[in-house]
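User: I'm writing a tutorial on reading structure tokens. Could you give me a worked example: one chain, its sequence, then its tokens, then a sentence or two explaining what the tokens reveal?
Assistant: Sure. Here is the example chain.
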Amino acid sequence: MSGGGGTNTGGAGPGTGGGVRVLRVGRAGLLCEVGSAEEVAALHAELLRRRDAGELGDVREVVPAARTVLLDGVRGPAALAARIRGWRVPPLAAAEGPLVRVPVRYDGPDLAEVAALWGVPAGRVAEIVGGTEFRVAFCGFAPGFGYLTGLPERLHVPRRAAPRTAVPPGSLALAGEYAGVYPRSSPGGWQLIGSTEAVLWDPGREPAALFAPGVRVRFAEVGA
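And here are its predicted structure tokens:
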């Protein structure tokens, strides 16, 4: 898992304003590059809307990442690329997208360190995180892991200098501009602030992943 740059606190971010760089990828792919996580979210939502409306033609997959959205299985990629470059993508509305509430205990081993970095008492971390609406920017690292944006830049924290060899499943963690919940035990260098019993990935569930790009996430303190 990796951290990154700056985000907002859940309000409408800037649209792409026509500033989409589009690159060809193979015979049937396009890679759309923008400048921020907020612009990725807006572009991803716009692409899904237009695909659902039948405006994109045949596009098999729309996959967001930190600063890009990949279109795969595109018929007529050159023509579609020219159209996308001219788009003015509206900012994503704060309340747009489904909302998932995740119960959390703020019992992580790095809670005091994060509080110190933020310059607040440890008890305020739950209040700050709980008062933030996050959004799943993209997924990766492990099945069910979503990279969540929403914390303002002043609350971004560095990765740990020495990663842990095993992070417990359900750990709520921070690194750079992102928050995330480990869906299974794995090595990791993020700052652990809490834990949840929510199941992030269940192959027998539909959908298998609790978090998907565009989903809004609220962390509710257990017992609060």
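What the tokens reveal: Confidence is low (pLDDT under 50) at residues 1-14. The helical segments are 37-52, 77-85, 111-118, 122-130.
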